[in-house]
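From the shared-data thread, chain only:
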Amino acid sequence: MNHSRPPANPLVDCISTAHPSLLTKEEINDVGVPVQILAPEHDYMLTPELKAHANETIPKLNVEYDYQHFPGVAHGFAVRCNEEDEGERRALERAKNAAVGWFGQLLHLH
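Structure, as C-alpha cells:
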C-alpha cells in the first residue's frame, strides 16, 4: 500500500531509526511521517540496496527526511557500542545527538 499522503491518524508523529532491522521496501514506500535514518557504513540488515531505495523514495513522499551516514561502524553501533573503540563511541554520541535533535525539532521540544 503506497500512501500519496500521510494517514489521517498516524501511529507516531515522527521516526528516528539507527541501523533498522528487517526493514522492507514496502515499509519505506509507506512512510507517512518525518523519518530519520542513522545508517552505519557496514550493515548486513540495512543493505546498500535498501539505503539507495530509502534515499530515492522518501524524498518523494512529501515528508521531512534526514539520512545520516556513519563511516567505519557496523550494524548495532547505536545500541551495542564498544566503548573501548573511540570511533564507535563518537558515532554513538553523534547518533544520540542527532535523534534527540530530530525529536526536539519535530515534536516542538526546543
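The chain has a mean pLDDT of 92.
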